[in-house]
Amino acid sequence: MIQRIDSHQHFWRPARGDYQWLRADEPAVAPLLRDFMPEDMAPLLSAHGVSQTVLVQAAESKAETEFMLDLASAHGFIGGVVGWVELSRPGAGAVLERMAGHPKFKGVRPMLQDQPDDAWIACRPRPDAIRTLQRLGLRFDALVKPRHLPPLLRFLRHWPELPVVIDHAAKPPVGANDGEAFAQWRADIAAVAAMPQVCCKFSGLWGEAPAAMHGDVEAALRAVRPVWEHLLDVFGPSRLMWGSDWPVLTLAGDYAGWIAISEACIGGLAQSEQDDVWAGTARRFYGLASE
Fold it and tell me: Which residue among 243, 244, 260, 281 is least enclosed by CB atoms within 10 Å?
């Protein structure tokens, strides 16, 4: 069986109180308003040969990062944690120093897609905080939508030595590959990919497809394949990493379905290239322990 690393998944316990986006009165996310914990995911990982995961923040709070680090200490399959630090505030560097004391703390993710200013990333993070990220060998997950790619590119050009990964391929308009918006995404993600410090996650794309494709593996594959082909062209397999975005994935399909869609795309590569996308890129980027 192919060895896999899931480079993007979440756990949460809504009763903790800091998941502001998880609301019962929002039909699109209401099914997610329950506990999703390691015991829920472990059978999926075992069934599909996933040896490690990267646990990614879902709340803008230090408390949630500490919650995730506690889970990582208790569960060996969690290979790394991407947490949250307010990079625009004084003292961010000191917070990063404390969190980096945990061996599984691998980086940070500002929730850029939720910032009121689309250009936040280009102007608000404190330079001393970014320098601390670099000094500590930490990584930066960019949770962006297509409109954020131009300001992100300005940030990348200013900090060319900071390792950055684009979450969910910047959430392109999956299934609309003949449209103007898709063409613009293609151009902007290619410009970002030209920066050698940037990787990209092949994740979260089923959820970006039209609702009519949710639950339909074949339809989702037809919609996702043009995205995959462009990502492969501009990043190459050594800078692409597979992830599930579980449990957000469950809004569109299931773990087995996303594995099937991904296998149909990744399986066309040479074996060494498949190994990169399924595991090698994530292991190198996040500095995960070898199995």
Answer: 260
